[in-house]
Amino acid sequence: MMTVESLKAAGANVEEGLSRCLNKEDFYLKMVNMGLTNQNFQLLGPALEAKDFDRAFELCHSLKGVIGNLSLTPLYDLICQLTEMLRSKTDTDCTGLYCQIMTMQEKLLAL
Q1: What's the gap between Cα 14 and its chain centre?
Q2: What is the Cα–Cα distance from 25 to 57, expressed in whole angstroms?
Q3: Which of 7, 24, 63, 109 meets the CB 3.0–4.6 Å disulfide criterion with 12?
């Protein structure tokens, strides 16, 4: 079961995230679960495969906001890297970074 302590141990800035959720742990954990199960994670892969960089950028930028507000730092840092790659709209292979993002998402969900 995910806890504030397990998120902190995984590198999340829990104090910052909690402050955005009125310092209510149950509310914060609910928001973290909602953020980590955001459908944009699943939509991002197909957009990258199709080389639809505009769509992929929109999805990734949205995730950046959600995950950033929750202060899930390890995942946020990866999403920021991918967002900047996509912002350039170059034909870049984002597969490795996307895989890292999905692995981190799964790791956090498993807490």
Answers
A1: 15
A2: 31
A3: 7
| Longest CA–CA separation in the chain, Å | 43
CA dihedral 29, 9, 68, 95 (to 10 degrees): -110
* Residue 93 DSSP class: -
Instruction: Tell which residue, 34, 32, 38, 1, has the closest CA to residue 14.
Output: 32
- Which is nearest to 12 in space by CA: 82, 25, 22? 25
Please tell me the predicted confidence (pLDDT) of residue 49: 93
Token couple for 33: 């679960």
Each residue's pLDDT tens digit, 25-38: 999 999 999 999 99
Look at residue 89 in the predicted model and tell me its pLDDT.
79
Q: How many degrees, rounded to 5, is the angle at CA 59 between CA 56 and CA 63?
A: 135
> Identity (one letter) of the amino acid at 56?
A
Residues composing the chain? 111
